[in-house]
Amino acid sequence: MYSSDDYNEGGYESYGDYEPHTGDPQYDLEFDRSSFYKMPDMVKKFLVYFRNMINEGVTYEILNLYENTFPKLTEQYFENTPWPDENEVAPVVDNDHVFMILYKELYYRDIYARVPGGPKPEQRFHSFYNYCDLFNYILSAETPVPLELPDQWLWELIDEFVYQFQSFAQYRSRTSKLSPAEIDALNTENKAWNVLCILNVLHSLVDKSNIKRQLEVSNVYAAGGDPDSVAGEFGRHSLYKMLGYFSLVGLLRLHSLLGDYYQAIKVLENIELHKKSQYSHVPACQISTSYYVGFAYMMMRRYADAIRTLSSALLYMQRTKQLFSSRSYQNDQINKQTEQMYHLLAICLVLHPQCVDESIQQVLREKNYHEKMFKMQYGDLGEFESCFTFACPKFLSPCPPPIEPGSNYGRDAVKHQTQVFMDEVRQQKMLPTIRSYLKLYTTLPLAKLAAFMSAARGGDRDAAREHAALAIHLLCFKHKMKNVVWTKGPSGLDGKFQSGSELDFYIDNDMIHIADTKVAHRFGDFFIRKLLKFEELNRKLHHIKI
Hints:
The chain is mainly α. The longest helix has 23 residues, at 151-173. Helix content is 62%, strand content 4%. Mean pLDDT is 82; it is low at 1-36. Residues 309-521 form the PCI domain.
């Protein structure tokens, strides 16, 4: 693991040394505050009580202070300024080492969330070293540490750790906006927020908790498997168990950001993605998991699995809207990921048409997704790229180059992944048109379909060339409609090749023979859902007093 001492050789401590008045209003405001600021008594009482509850391990009260009291005090006393720094807080809480680490985690997270323009370079470094202190405290202990935190905080801690790495990588890549002093600091502190360090922390938490073995055993609980039998001393402790599980989701996100989609799904082995479990009670974690799994499936051309994953998550969010409205910290992220998942679902349904839940279809029709899907179905490559750019994660380079003035690599990773996706789309550009013609016939001469396709292109190609191109497109149709689809098993990578097309065809003597593979439409399910909804509305009306 890593510690602050490992990085002092680069002059890390000197980054915080500033003259009293620099001419920068932000720095001067902080100097004035440090000179004249007095911490409100209410904040002091909160910090002492918060420290006491953490030391006593009262998780339900810690959750209340974390989710409700801290944001309220932020709004009341620190709307335009950050919370007091560690030098002001430490004497109030008797220099409690563990509490100060946790407080600084909240302090820097608040700066990342609220300070316009983002944190300053030394704040990014300080936050990294604070995470090093926290994870060293948890991982270096010979016995489980006496620390109990609510699962919501543990999830947001891991999520924020990966986010701050992502934010730092993006900040580092914007060389045109960096000053010479910032470039020197970044080149000197080249071990801070290194991708290998992030991977090391997450894998160490996974290994310490034995969470993979616990998940493997829990999948066979019906046969008598007991996760505690393989958890070990640390894995039985709630802190280590939940940090291990959330670290798996953090690895899913990190590998997706780096463009390694196979490994992203691989790390979730033994997590049954399509079932509820004891670990899926943190909504933000469940939504983030579904988003990155759905995206990874789409990039692996497993559209049926992507559609199932995204649809399931969107249905879950539709049914639990009230729950998300009460979550203030990650509410904006959840809303954005919801929009991103609808865009991903629209892309997948264009490339791989199939039936989805009626309530999802209704949202796609009522909002502007319907227009986007219409444009994509008619081969609008610009609309494909626009939807992908909005919906994709902000990709990162695993090996960023040394920073030099004038260099610019910030968008390279995004451009590369967009190019990979658009190459796939171009291969399928004509398939919706072919599908629309095939649906109209049971038999169709190959030459006639070639003439239709030539007319769709504007009639600028001769018959022989169009005939050859059509043969390629028909083979492409057969190939692209065959996907690996998950059916059962603990790994999301498991599956069998299945045809996802609602029609099939074969060619005999230049004649295309077409068959509808969909045996029956599921009108019954639709009417049953509407009847149940009508009955529910009727019951509610009876309870209303006029």
